[in-house]
Each structure stands twice: as structure tokens, then as C-alpha cells.
Design a protein that fits this description.
The chain contains 17 helices and eleven strands. Mean pLDDT is 71; it is low at 25-55 and 64-187. The chain is flat. Helix content is 41%, strand content 10%. Among the domains are: 200-281, Four Helix Bundle (Hemerythrin (Met), subunit A); 290-492, P-loop containing nucleotide triphosphate hydrolases (Rossmann fold, 3-Layer(aba) Sandwich), CATH 3.40.50.300. The strands form two sheets. Strands 2-6-5-7-4-8-9-10-11 form a nine-stranded mixed β-sheet, with helices on both faces. A two-stranded parallel sheet has the order 1-3. The chain is an alpha/beta fold. The protein binds guanosine-5'-triphosphate (GTP). Guanosine-5'-triphosphate is lined by residues 311, 313-319, 341, 344, 347, 395-396, 455-456, 458-459, 481-484, 488. Belongs to the GTP-binding SRP family. FtsY subfamily. Residues 154-174 have a biased composition (Low complexity). It is an enzyme of class 3 (hydrolase). GTP binds at residues 311-318, 393-397, 455-458.
């Protein structure tokens, strides 16, 4: 073989390798869907994010402001890039990645601001109550090797070769702090599960619904010739899973006619038909993007997005608010939490803890304070400090109590004096079945619900409530709670959901 032939072969091999590498990179990028506004803007012009199956939790700007796409945040450059795991993998953002510091909050000098009627709560770090100060800001460590470094038993690499660690030198501001509190930096660096592929990752949590609904239907449909009795059983299975009479009839009618007309034989074909029918019944084209992105750049005159979280007692409002804050922070957004649940002191503390964990400021009022004024204060504060999103957690209230429902209406109206409410998320407990539907109707009347969060789907065999709620209200289920863990909140994706049900 001549030298030129050898050279040609080598060149050809190199070209093939280069193509393979490029294709690999492109494919790995496709497996991961980012939450960035940029992508949404590219794929779904105008307003309303481009929700699509297989994506992470989709975020978008609310209706009113419409057009303005928030500026690209540096976070986009730091995470979910090459080498990161993709959908379904047990992935996590590396601890050492750069992230936005805590929001700019005033530090209390003395006793906690629990007495004023609407005090601004500063996220204190971990357990150390006394020094709310520096811990939060990792930047609090000035570039100088100076004091903090010597004392920092916990994190700061005691080595004198100091210049290496001070990651993001920031305003030295409080020289007072003798030593940075220990757990803080760690806490702030808390890892947040990637938002993409969560439904796939958490699909095992739907096992109860899968065995009753998914496996039940597959078993019946796959049994061969279906007589009237079999169809009744199919209907019963759907009803037991809380799909409701109307959806049940619609689904069985369609299955009957399609089975007859398509002449399906194999179990795979039947399964594919069932998938198609169930997905169609879930309104795959509904807009499920959570409108939690700001209108323009808040740092440049834009307005924060405002999200109101409502529902009856114990459905998971506070937990969902906290989980959503994490999703936003993971997306590089700054968040302020408004604790408008002034009934239950524990709820405020619970929210404050969520705030600490993501470095979000919490605005709270005294127990018994007017929730509307706390919500108003939160939105004002959020605008003043130019956060991207204000999440307001409201008190649980029975939909049957007129006075409490009026109060909720007032909360929304008062907030609207200060800012547009972009999203009203109704949190429903999936285990409560039909009652959830009644709640949804009443809440929708009072505050014009724009999206539903169905929680505790992990503990029920009645996952079919999703179908019914959407059908009855015409409001999309946007998020589902699949556990008590901080990242057990997933976007609702009809295809992935049905796949999880069918096992
Ligand atoms: N299994 C499971 N538990 C959940 C989920 N979401 C919330 N919870 C739990 O439900 C309980 C109530 O949650 P909260 O967030 O306090 O509910 P809330 O609606 O704020 O309660 P009130 O303020 O009293 O109305 C807590 O124990 C949560 O951990 C979920 O998706 N799955």
C-alpha cells in the first residue's frame, strides 16, 4: 500500500471520528432541556413558554408584559453543559459551580423582626441564630487571607495559600464578623436536582396508580375478545382511578371504536392505542408553562413575576412554594417568598426554612396579620430589590368558608394594586379525589386559577384525577408533587405521565 493511500485512509478515519464527536455532542445536548428563557423565546415566540413533553419545568413570563425576554443569566453558562448527565440520570449540579449570591437583604441588628406588623425576614443561616450576618454570603470572605480564613474551621481551607479560595470577591462590607458560621456556605451550595427529566426520574412514585389503572387496563384490553362485561370492567377501572364519568365514557367509547376499526391484534398495538387515547384525553396541547419569569429585567426597570399559591389546608402549598423556589433558583433566578399564611406560625417558619435553603428573602407578618398586607409588602419588596419572581404562599382555607374565600380574593386584589399577578397556582391533594374537584371550582371562581399543582400523587392509586380536573376546569395541571423531598416536584407531561402509568 502506497504512502498516499495510507495518508488517505488516516484522513478518512479522522473525518469519521470528528463527525461522530460532533453528533455525540449534539445528541447529548438534545437529551437535556434547559429552562432558559432564550430557548422558549426561540421556540414559542410571543408569550407563554413552549411547554413540551420531555422537558423540564417550563417557565415563562406572564401574559401582561408579554414580549420582553429576560436577559441571559450567567447561570446558563455554568450548569447543564457538557459532561452533565441527561434525562433520567441521577444528576446534580456540581457543588462548586458558580451561583448567584443571596438577595440583598437588610441585616437585623438586634432581636428578630418578629414584632413589627409586617417585618422583613432575613434568611438566617442554619441553626446559628445569633449571627445572621455573613454566613449567607460566601462572598463575605474578602479576598484578603485575613481573619475569616484562620478561624474558618468548617470550610475555608486553612492553608495560608489563601488567594486561591476567595471565589467571588464581593463588597467586604461587614468586617465585623469574626468568623463565618459553619454550615452556611454548604447550605447555600445545596444541590438542586436538575429540573429536566424529573417526571421520568420520579415515575416509580406512581406505582400505585400504575398497578391499578395502567396494569388493570392493559390486562383487560389485552385479554382478547372483549364482551360487554369486559367493557364494564374497563369503565369501573377508570372510575375507580377517579377519571370521572365523562372522561371514562369518552375513553371507553374511543377505545371500542378504534379497536374495532383498526383491527388490532398484538398486545403492543393495543398498548399503543391505549397510550394514544389516554394522552389525548389529557390535552397534550394545553399551555403548561409556569408563568414565573419577570417582565423584562427587574434590575433595569422590569417587573418581577408574581405567583400566588392557593388551596385548602394541608394540600402542600408551602411545600410546593419551596420546591418551586428551588426550581427557579436552579434556573438562575432570584426569588422572594411572601409568607401570607398568617394563621399558622409554623407555616411561616416552614417557608422561612425553604427560603434559607435557596438564599431567598422571606417577607412575613405577625401571626394574625392581614394576609393581604403581607402579600402587598412582599410584592413591593420584591420590586424594590429587583428579584425575578415573588412567590406568595397563602393560608390554607376551606372552600366552603365564604369569609376565608373573600379574604383570598382580597389578597389578590390588593397585590394587583402593586403588580400584575402572573400565575395563580391551585394546589390540590390528589388523594382527596372528587372533593378536590369541588375545591377547584370554588377557588377558580374566586381567584381565577391559571394552573393546578397536583400533590401527593405518590401516595395514591387515583392518579386519574388529573384527567378530571383538567376537563372540568379547563385549567392545565402544570406541576405534580411526587414526594416530600425538596426536589420532588415535576412538570406534568401527558406523554411521560401515561408512560409511567402503563409501566
Ligand atoms: N407524599 C407527599 N407529601 C407531600 C407532597 N407535597 C406536600 N406533602 C406533604 O404534605 C404535608 C402538608 O404540606 P404543607 O406544604 O405544609 O401544606 P400546606 O397546604 O401549606 O398546609 P397549610 O398551610 O396548613 O394549609 C407536609 O407533610 C408535606 O411534606 C407530595 O407531593 N407528596
Amino acid at each position: 500500500m502506497s504512502t498516499s493511500n495510507v495518508i488517505l485512509i488516516v484522513v478518512a478515519v479522522l473525518v469519521v471520528l470528528a463527525i461522530a464527536v460532533v453528533a455525540g455532542v449534539v445528541l447529548s445536548r438534545r437529551r437535556r432541556i434547559s429552562l432558559s428563557q432564550k430557548e422558549e423565546a426561540a421556540e414559542a415566540p410571543a408569550k407563554g413558554g413552549g411547554y413540551r413533553t420531555g422537558s423540564g419545568i417550563s417557565l415563562s413570563s406572564g401574559g401582561g408584559g408579554g414580549t420582553a425576554a429576560p436577559p441571559a443569566h450567567p447561570v446558563e453558562e455554568r450548569t447543564e453543559v457538557e459532561g452533565q448527565p441527561g434525562v433520567g440520570d441521577d444528576a446534580a449540579v456540581p457543588r462548586d459551580t458558580e451561583r448567584r449570591g443571596i438577595v440583598d437583604v437588610p441585616l437585623p441588628d438586634g432581636p428578630p423582626a418578629a414584632d413589627s406588623s409586617t417585618a422583613v425576614e432575613v434568611p438566617e443561616q442554619g441553626t446559628a441564630p445569633a449571627e445572621p450576618v455573613a454566613p449567607a454570603e460566601p462572598p463575605a470572605a474578602p479576598p484578603e487571607p485575613a481573619e475569616p480564613a484562620e478561624r474558618a474551621e468548617p470550610s475555608a481551607p486553612a492553608e495560608p495559600a489563601a488567594p486561591a479560595e476567595p471565589a467571588e470577591p464581593v463588597a467586604p462590607a461587614e468586617p465585623v464578623v469574626p468568623k463565618p458560621a459553619e454550615p452556611t456556605a454548604e447550605e447555600l451550595a445545596e444541590e438542586i436536582e436538575p429540573t429536566s427529566g424529573r417526571l421520568e426520574r420520579l415515575r416509580g412514585r406512581l406505582s400505585r396508580s400504575r398497578s391499578t389503572l395502567g396494569q388493570g387496563l392493559l390486562g383487560l384490553l389485552g385479554a382478547g375478545d372483549l364482551d360487554e362485561e369486559s367493557w364494564e370492567e374497563i369503565e369501573d377501572t377508570l372510575l375507580m382511578a377517579d377519571l370521572g364519568a365523562a372522561t371514562t365514557t369518552e375513553i371507553t367509547d374511543r377505545l371500542r371504536s378504534e379497536l374495532a376499526s383498526r383491527g388490532l391484534r398484538t398486545s403492543e398495538q393495543v398498548r399503543a392505542l391505549l397510550r394514544e387515547v389516554l394522552v389525548d384525553a389529557l390535552g397534550p396541547d394545553m399551555q403548561r408553562s409556569v408563568q414565573a419569569l419577570p417582565h423584562g429585567d427587574p434590575a433595569d426597570g422590569g417587573k418581577p413575576a408574581v405567583v400566588l399559591v392557593v388551596g385548602v389546608n394541608g394540600t402542600g402549598k408551602t411545600t410546593t412554594t419551596g420546591k418551586l423556589a428551588r426550581v427557579l433558583v436552579a434556573d438562575g433566578r432570584t426569588v422572594l417568598l411572601g409568607a401570607a399564611d398568617t394563621f399558622r406560625a409554623a407555616a411561616v417558619e416552614q417557608l422561612a426554612t425553604w427560603g434559607e435553603r435557596v438564599g431567598a428573602e422571606v417577607v412575613r407578618g405577625n401571626e394574625g396579620a392581614d394576609p393581604a398586607s403581607v402579600a402587598f409588602e412582599a410584592v413591593s419588596r420584591g420590586s424594590d430589590t429587583a428579584v425575578d419572581t415573588v412567590l406568595i404562599d397563602t393560608a390554607g382555607r376551606l372552600h366552603t368558608k365564604t369569609g376565608l374565600m373573600d379574604e383570598l380574593g382580597k389578597v389578590k386584589r390588593v397585590v394587583e394594586k402593586r403588580a400584575q399577578v402572573d400565575e395563580v397556582l391551585l394546589v390540590l391533594d390528589a388523594t382527596t379525589g372528587q372533593n378536590g374537584l369541588t375545591q377547584a371550582r370554588v377557588f377558580s371562581d374566586v381567584v381565577d386559577v391559571t394552573g393546578i399543582v397536583l400533590t401527593k400523587l405518590d401516595g395514591t392509586a387515583k392518579g386519574g384525577i388529573v384527567f378530571q380536573v383538567q376537563r372540568e376546569l379547563g385549567v392545565p395541571v402544570k406541576l405534580v408533587g411526587l414526594g416530600e423531598g425538596p426536589d420532588d416536584l415535576a412538570p406534568f407531561e401527558p406523554g411521560a405521565f401515561v408512560d409511567a402509568l402503563l409501566g
